[in-house]
Batch of 4 targets.
Target 1
Amino acid sequence: MNVRRNAAALAAIGVLAAAAPAMAAGPSPSPKASVPAGLYGKSDPTYDGVWRQSLTLVAQRTLGYRPATAAVDWLTGQQCANGSFAAFRATPATSCDAKTMVDTNSTAAAIQALHATGGHDAAVTKAVDWLKSVQNKDGGWGYNPGSPSDTNSTSVVVGALAATGADPAGVRKDGKSPYDALATWSIPCDQDGGGALAYQPDKKGKLAANADATAAGVTAALGKGFVAQTGKAPAADACAKADRPTPAQIADNGGAYLAAAVAKSGHLMSVMPGATDQPDYGNTADTVVALAADGRTAAAKKVYAFLEKSAGPWAAQTGPAAYAQLILAAHAVGAQPGDFGGTSLVTSLNALGPEPRMQAAEKQAKASDGSSHAGVWWSVGICLVAGIGIGFLLSTRKKQQP
């Protein structure tokens, strides 16, 4: 997810390696675009405006918040008439045309966000229909319409379909579904990187293990989107051979690969071109969600513990998408995002844009940082009643004394 968010920017400056996930092509908006009202974060939204807004709204809804109207309106205002979304449109009042760089990732993310917020069925339906119209013949999707399919783009689309209640297996082009595409990118167990998923085949058709693509592919194979909880434990810890793996086998084999990849350090390393030797916090957060969804609870919690100790500064520097990823990772393992290494992910995220509100029915049970106030106020009430009762008894005793 972290790589997909930055892919268009990297493509624009020509440093994205061929094996890196999902890139946009063609001319891009000015990298000096100002941040409009309603959008979360303070950094240039040119390459990730819709993506980070969508993750933010999904994370807020997962916590029980009702996102601010201004935030939701900003996202809906980014949609083109045909249902698609671009990474960011600086002038949304202007109609989209052939030069508008719409993409599947932004569209699929927006679908998950608008479906989660509710009340935007028409916009969601149009976006889903657009995604179906640009499905490739292999059953998958590329970043831009017509570009070769890749695991990351296909996975985020699967998440959008599943979030809206559609069966991804039934969305087909030339008889092939996205699960058929994922199967072709799943590396056989007896090969280097066995169990992992490749981003996409290279020019010679060879598959190379890609941890980010694997995390995306695992959640997609399980029919999950951005939001996932602990699933059923896999039948085996190791990669299981299969000539044509089923979605469940793709997920379990990918989960086995990820569990092994983080077994020693508790995190993934950055593989971006030119990056220093450092942890990749974004893809590590995605790995927590994937491991939890695949029922690998112990491994998922170990990785989350690493993030809790180390990822705070990264999130503060990166912004809303990073906070949202960590919140979704916390949700996947049942952790408390209101206390993440001594800080509140929830408060930090909500402070970066229009303030959301807790739904009325949940205000008594949850605080704005995701913790419960109900027990606190119940305890206070008990103390007050007890105090009154004690005072009454003492007063009565004094009156009864001779």
Target 2
Amino acid sequence: MSNDLPKVAWIGLGIMGSPMSENLIKAGYDVTGYTLEQDKVDRLAAVGGTGASSIAEAVRDADVIITMVPASPQVEAIAYGPEGILENARRGALLVDMSSITPQTSVDLAERARDKGIRVLDAPVSGGEAGAVEAVLSIMVGGEQADFDAARPVLDALGRTIVLCGPHGCGQTVKAANQLIVAVNIQACAEAVVFLEKSGVDLAAALDVLNGGLAGSTVLTRKKANFLNRAFAPGFRIDLHHKDMGIVTDAARNVGAALPVGAVVAQLVASLRAQGDGGLDHSALLRSVERLSGRPVGA
């Protein structure tokens, strides 16, 4: 392990955080991790990381602190307060928040961190669990150019498409747009699947040929097996996409942008969650179309 690489603290070892932090270890980084579930801290330690028993312990000696938690309230909970990141990280540390949260939360975090001498980037990702495991994530970043340049080698170990989109909050705004496009795309695919099946078409053959033309997409490539097999183990949970659709509809309202189709899909995501499917993968939007089309769900 090279001693000239920055020391990394990783807060949040979930579906995304665990494989991402492990990719940093593979790249030679010294990673100290903390998360609420001890078994996930143990998993990090088993592959060469160091487990911490608190946020304060994890961040104390870190040059770079990376956070990957579900939503704005969790970011605020880990960042603020006497046990939080800002009170316990050293001046000059770089905090890279890779969670998907509201743009305003990112702006507020950067302002409060500045008072502590801590630099901040918002750096949400797209690519799902598979993208995290394969280190091919798309990473959309908001913040200062110099901080982006400093973080770039670390981000290069996690993703393939890494772009500074503008000042603080801009990474989150682009992520919100990403989630809008993904949800509408999944919904269109789901409607096509039910239409094709009710028409008696060979679904696997149809999806193959569709994916080779203008209707093809990363969503269809990544989610085709989910649709074919009705397999909805979460790579990205409906609960989280519901949160993200709230972010994008609210942010769009604030800037005066109309999202007519996005608003409909947001309601379909909300209804799926209300029907108890919030823990399933977002490709389970197929279940909503099945219900609306009078098909037995999952048949």
Target 3
Amino acid sequence: MTMKKTLTLAGSDSSGGAGIQADLKTFQEHDVYGMNALTSIVTMDPNNDWNHGVFPIDVDIVAKQLDTILSVGIDAMKTGMLGSVEIIELGARKIDEFKLDKVVIDPVMVCKGEDEVLQPENTDAMRELLLPRATITTPNLFEAGQLAQTGPIKTIEGMKEAAVKIHSLGAKNVVIKGGKALGHEKAVDLFYDGKDFTLLEKEKLDTTYNHGAGCTFAAAVTANLADGKSVKESVEAAKEFVTAAIAHGWKLNEHVGPVMHGAYAKFGSNVK
């Protein structure tokens, strides 16, 4: 028996809903073999409103993890929380060294407020080093605005403008996750392949149990690419998968509710 193999280069979410935990669960649901290189460990303080602590992993240890995984060989990879310019540079070098050609860049940004990134140098490095190596990048509205340097995005036309700019930076394909945050009657994502725009629309879901949705979507795209689907097919299938996961999200505690990674297998595309 053989399985397609996938890599996630990302942080660990100790609560289990996002980060490499979401990625590996999503890979498993897609019947691909997931491997992970940890960039950081994220904890939550139960006695202080679930405030997050981020503990970076030394870049040399990240490199050793990547060498372990890439020596085996992979069919597709994704990035998530990277945490430092040095790790971004490492990821770019390994993509080139191993000639990786199915690369999903999920440009996770730790932000404060609506328009400021805590580590702007990381955004610059992602823009310069990772986007030119991306088969597809999967920013949310905030991240897309930062990468494209357009500022806040509030309309579908704004999404299109940002997608064109991000594509011009080297990403072969772009999908901007508007979801229910966009001022639109439906939950909308926008896919752009350098020529055509495709709107991916679903009914808005009245839920706050969506922790890990972005990671899950990008991981599903990665798994679909590894399985041989086209980029557009991978995005469309990932949209179905994550919509079901959000629809069946659940309450973990008073602070957070994760998506259900097994929802699509259990319930299909039906939403409750």
Target 4
Amino acid sequence: MSRTPKSAPIVAELGRPETPQETADRKAAATKAYRSSQTIRSLLAAILVTLGMVLIIVLMVPRGERVAAPEIDVSAIAANVESTVGSPAIVPDLGDFWRVNKAELEGGSPAVWDITLAPSAENESGFIRIAQAFDSDSSWAPQRLNGIAAKDTTTIDGLTWDVYPIGDRGQANVTYAIGTQAGTDYVLLYGSRSADSTAELAATLTTQIRALSETP
């Protein structure tokens, strides 16, 4: 038995059966729309899979404590400085308040034993640098202080210190400085901490400064 050919669907907008070309165009459009939707679904699926893998990796990474920077042994470095310059080098008593950010001997004329201290507590800010200029005097200090010379003095733990009025004229965030002669060396404390904080640190150096002053 022969089959009756299936009549073309009536196009409502035209009120007649669609032509073979219109049928082909319709099917092509439907195929394109289907493939497009599949592409979007595939893209979304790929994104979800990627995010899932990233989340798994993040969760698998160990959450250890942040590795602390190696502690700087100021005493050991100072011993090397002393053997190099042939003169005692100041070693600050850090206590619980201070930590050392840097400690090194700077070559030049004069050679300078330079130590940078910062508060250990996170709620404290600022820094103080201790600079011991070997075989030098107060005329050296302005080299470190943007040309600013001492204008006053203050007494800390029985020692007289020169006061450098830096204010907002300093460089590298330096706002305050004091210095004193220690035998043949000049010791300068400068940084961004307050005058009181700087004086407290200076007081801890009194014994060593007096010893330097008495060194023949």
